[in-house]
Amino acid sequence: MSILRDLGLCAVPQRKLLNAQLETLQSCDTCKDKKLNEACQRCGVFNAALTKYTEANIPVKYWKLEMNKDFVGDTVLMDKYKELTANVKQTYDKGVAICFMGGHGTGKTLTTSNVLKRVLEKGYSGLYVNLTDVITSLVSNFEGRAQMRSELLTVDFLVIDEFDPRYMGSDNASDLFGRVLEDIIRIRAQNSLPMFMCTNSPNVVESFNGPLKQSITSLMNYFTNVSVLGKDQRKSGL
Question: In 3-state terms, what secondary structure has residue 158?
Answer without folding.
Answer: strand
